[in-house]
Amino acid sequence: MKTLNKASFNFFYGLNDFFKPAKRDKVIWAAFNGSPAVKDTLESLGVPHPEVGSIVLNGEIVSFEQQITNGDQVDVYPANWKLNSSTEYPLQPESPDNLRFVLDVHLGKLARIMRMLGIDTLYDSAYDDPQITEIGCREQRFILTRDIDLLKQTKIKYGHWMRNTDPINQTDEILLTFDVYSQMDPFTRCLSCNGMLRPVAKEKVADQLPPGVKKYYEKYHQCDRCQKVYWKGSHYEHMSEWLRKYYGIMEHGA
């Protein structure tokens, strides 16, 4: 019987999230035939390439295409999207100036919160994986997903696997990972479609307003994409209080 080759992998910091607790911060051995690319091997272990910022093979920084051989030691470091570019993270592509996102079907509540914060966020429960991939690649949007395998597609450059499942914790995760505080502009995007909200005269949208709303409110905003109308009712007050409580921010947009 032919003996398989083996190489040791050390995953650092957030990359340990891809492993069960018993394997975190420990050497992981990969068995293989021939001399596969290091990218293929680390993804076979469960770590998608968009999450990787640097790979050090036997003490030298290498590319994803570098082949590994028996006895190699591989140290893998996560991408750091708080930095636009860095020699410390040569595998991390330069990120766009203004970060934009597209979310998978499991992240609908997160999409709504991100839009409320004014962050450009595409989401549709009808999107399938090929559509998400195509949108992410075409528009240079970060793909946010709970599906690790989705991020293993070779053409995906920007992607992040969501560690948390609770929408509030997921929001904190996005803010911490991408440092998009400067892009936050609450209540400037449509919660339904991500379009921009513009001031609109009451008489132009009067036929869309419930009688009670029409009676008590004078100022309105309308989505420039789906035409949905917004006003500062009780729901707005609840959202504003939530923003103040969790993020210490107040409206400075629409």
What does this molecule look like?
With 254 residues, this protein is of the alpha/beta class. It folds into 3 domains: 5-78, Beta-grasp domain (Ubiquitin-like (UB roll), Roll); 101-183; 197-247, no CATH class. The chain contains 7 helices and 12 strands. The chain has helices at residues 38-44, 108-116, 129-139, 167-178, 202-205, 211-216, 234-247, and strands spanning 5-11, 28-32, 52-57, 60-62, 73-78, 101-103, 121-122, 142-145, 159-161, 197-200, 220-223, 229-230. The strands form 3 sheets. Strands 2-1-5-3-4 form a 5-stranded mixed sheet, with no helix packed on it. A 4-stranded parallel sheet has the order 7-6-8-9, sandwiched between helices. A 3-stranded antiparallel sheet has the order 10-11-12. A hairpin with a 2-residue loop joins strand 3 and strand 4 (60-62). Helix 2 (108-116) crosses helix 4 (167-178).
